[in-house]
Amino acid sequence: MELEPVVEKNLNRHLSVAKEWFPHEYVPWSEGRTFDGPLGGDAWSESDSKLPEIARTALVVNLLTEDNLPSYHRQIATLFGPDGAWGTWVGRWTAEEGRHGTAIRDYLTVTRAVDPVALERARMTHMTEGYSNNHDDEILHTLAYVSFQELATRISHRNTGKVTGDPTCEALLAKVAADENLHMVFYRNLLAAAFELAPGQAMRAVADVLADFQMPGAGIEGFARKSVAIALAGIYDLRQHRDEVVVPVLRQWDVFNLGGLDADGEIAREQVAAHLDTLERQASRFEERRAARAARRAATS
Questions:
Q1: Which residues of the chain have pLDDT under 70?
Q2: Which residue of 21, 37, 47, 83 is surrounded by the most CB atoms within 10 Å?
Q3: Could you tell me which residues come within 8 angstroms of residue 243 by beta carbon, excluding any fewer than 6 positions away?
């Protein structure tokens, strides 16, 4: 209730800067042809795809993540409620996120970039599982999570677009990423206001979320293997997570200069600092292993 005026202000800001765009304009429909099945078209073959394998992997992960929108909507609608600015935001956010899955699936299907049967089976499995995070019943934890997650998703979409080598796909994912960035700003601003209202509680939420952060697609079948491949390709790795997601958001909140913390808030801030150090060590180790792996491959070839 205390955050409601901040929600209204940021909702109005969002509506004033969000740019209307249309998924159908970013799909090369003339490239499409009928698949096998009741309509008697051509079966999919891997040779149909013009995209590198890692780009296909990342696109499928990104799309399956977007597919779980009904679960995400249920969570925030339950937590934020249907009324006032909170409820309006839930509807607007859901509508904007909904076009992401539509656009990416249309692109993949029309260009025959991936096996449509395997994609549909993966969608059924992933959506049947649904989605929940470890803090979906507490508002400050949820705001902290989506502040980091929306920025992480933006980076993943943009970098996926770059590795496709297809200007059409890159333009499409740039539009998706722009939406995700505006969503991040909205949530980040709400938690900034929460830091003013309840700094200790907000700091605890940030520390807890960072400690067990997972991308929303973590439940995708084979996600661990896919995420390693995505990291090795530089689409989204620990270095990007630390330096391009966690650090910039924490800097915006000025968490290490924040006053007014209670005892638990101070402990939480220490935990955030320690987590950054851990991420630095993990990112450095991963970069070393990736470089060694690349050197071995170069020597072999």
A1: none
A2: 21
A3: 283
Number of alpha helices (DSSP H) and beta strands (DSSP E) in the chain: 12, 0
Instruction: Using CB atoms within 10 Å of the CB of residue 94, give its burial: 0 to 12 exposed, 13 to 18 middle, 19+ buried.
Output: middle
Give the 3-state secondary structure of residue 35: strand
Return the amino acid letter for 28.
P
Nearest to 56 by CA among 123, 112, 113: 113
Return the pLDDT at 115: 96
Which whole-number Å values give the CA distances from 243 to 149, 152, 211, 273, 284, in the listed order?
14, 11, 16, 14, 12
The pLDDT score that the predictor gives to residue 136 is 79
**Residue type at position 1:** M
Distance in angstroms (rounded) separating the CA atoms of residues 190 and 60: 31
Please choose, from the candidates 165, 10, 185, 187, the residue with its C-alpha nearest in 3D space to the C-alpha of residue 85: 10
DSSP H or E segment with residue 177 = helix 167-197
How high is the pLDDT of residue 71?
A: 94
